[in-house]
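Q: Sequence in, structure out?
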Amino acid sequence: MTIEQLLHEKQVKALKELRGMRKPKTRKLFKALAYLGPEDFLVTGYKKSRPLVAFNPAAYLDGDDLLIFPRFIFDYYKYVSSVGMIRVNIEKLLSGDVETPIESKIILWPINLWEFLGCEDPRAFRAYGSYYIFYTGKGYFLEGREYIRMDVLGLAEYDDKWRLKRRGYFTITHGEEKFTPKSNKDSAFIKTQGGKFTLLTRPEIKNNRICWRGLADIKAMEIEAESLEPVLVFEDWELKVGWSTNAVPLSNNEYLVGWHGVVLEDLSYRDGLAVVDGEGRLLAISDYLIEPRGLIEEYGDRPLVVFGDGLVSYKDYLLWIGGISDYAVAIFIAERDKVLEELRWIR
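A: Exactly. Output:
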């Protein structure tokens, strides 16, 4: 049995057994704290100082500073993305005292064939003494003289000064076999387990996109096929689901993470939260908590999207830092306890 066949069997079973945990409704507890459009970023170190669009940002709380990693696009025709970084004081952000434009720098851009079309949708975390960014490497694989389109799960490692140390992409392995899905993205780091770590990920198997958990080797950039298990599947009213954010520790063995679903009736991206344990098993789930509303959030290059890659817990609040309709950044805020009350515990 190949790796793809193994995962397909697990997926078929999950699509029968894991449906019915959610309802198609939104309890909008998060409110917009700030919007950052492309005009609010001043990029240094590159000949173009203003991106055309800036969206789908990762986030990482570094002391009193919130690091935000927007996805920048400077050119319209090829739509090639890079990843930038800004630093804002979180108290100033909460008080509405952040001055714009905010000085930014590009920390990740395409240099390999497998990311030739862009470095997309980052997720930031720290482990093993380094900073890391998961991202989607949108590009090609060369087979003979034919270029095959692929979206791979990329990983970039940085030192304490955010200098790039290495980059690569993950494969799924079992014995001597290696498998690279035609699309693998929407991933989050949970915790280290010796030289390996648990992660949440979203490989596309037989044209279906559901949420998985697994065990990976960060040095070899390999995910163990046998460790992969489905966690969350799309409901009847959805086209697909995926993990949306980094994982935020709640306790020694509870982690809060965002997810998104694409709704069939209008193709909107709507978002909810889940709690998983240290192995990625689902403990609690919400219905939708964020959906695009109003002109600023609904209208852009890809309408009806809230897609947020950054989740931060600060004092009594949760900050959800997201992209809106593929053109701007929105920072949403809610009281953490009120949000957690909306989760239904299943374990």
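The domain at 3-345 is CATH 2.115.10.20 (Tachylectin-2; Chain A).
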